[in-house]
Design a protein that fits this description.
The protein is α+β, with helices and mostly antiparallel strands and about 170 residues long. It contains five helices and six strands, in the order E-H-E-E-E-E-H-H-H-H-E. It has helices at about 15-25, 75-100, 110, 115-140, 140-155, and strands at about 5-10, 30-35, 40-45, 50-60, 65-70, 155-160. Strand 3 (about 40-45) and strand 4 (about 50-60) form a beta hairpin. It is elongated and about 75 Å long. The mean pLDDT is about 85.
Length: about 170
């Protein structure tokens, strides 16, 4: 869901935060905050599934290491998990009532034939997933814009990671 990238810059964490804050203020459509360890930024106008840029700043000997993630705001993810759990509980309750598991909690014979009524929780779950996908589609251009804005402000470069060591092989005898 969220993309994670690693970057390095020659600036200190405080300088990175100041430059990121200046870039956020300079863009009319961007809001956010910056501290010496974390930068958060998002576009002001958009839908509720707005993409958020989170940059964790870590001091290193020759500058700052930056771990940048962009993705859906975490509160939206929490809301969607609560939404999904509630409708899954309703779906299980409807299934138990339809199967007549409990004597005190049953649907009448007329309700058992009403498929729209019985399938409404499942339809709501499907609509919730469709809404998330539509929101992600609408905000698809936010992540590259925010990442480019942040990287240009901090002059960060992609961090080269060493490939994992190859296992030693035994010589054939």
């Amino acid at each position: 869901m969220a993309s994670k990238s690693r970057y390095v810059t020659r600036f200190t964490t405080v300088e990175c935060a100041m430059k990121a804050e200046a870039a956020i203020v300079a863009e009319a459509d961007v809001v956010g905050m910056a501290t010496d360890s974390l930068v958060l930024a998002r576009k002001l106008k958009g839908n509720m599934f707005q993409t958020v840029l989170r940059a964790r700043l870590t001091r290193e000997a020759d500058g700052t290491s930056i771990v940048v993630t962009t993705g859906m705001d975490r509160i939206v993810f929490v809301f969607m998990c609560i939404f999904l759990a509630a409708f899954l509980a309703i779906t299980v309750a409807f299934a138990l009532a339809w199967l007549r598991v409990f004597q005190s909690f049953q649907f009448s014979d007329q309700d058992r034939r009403d498929w729209l009524f019985l399938s409404m929780p499942v339809i709501s779950i499907a609509l919730g997933f469709a809404l998330v996908q539509a929101g992600r589609y609408v905000s698809r251009h936010d992540a590259p814009f925010l990442l480019r804005m942040f990287l240009d402000a901090t002059e960060a470069k992609g961090k080269k990671t060493a490939p994992p060591p190859r296992p030693a092989t035994k010589p054939a005898s």
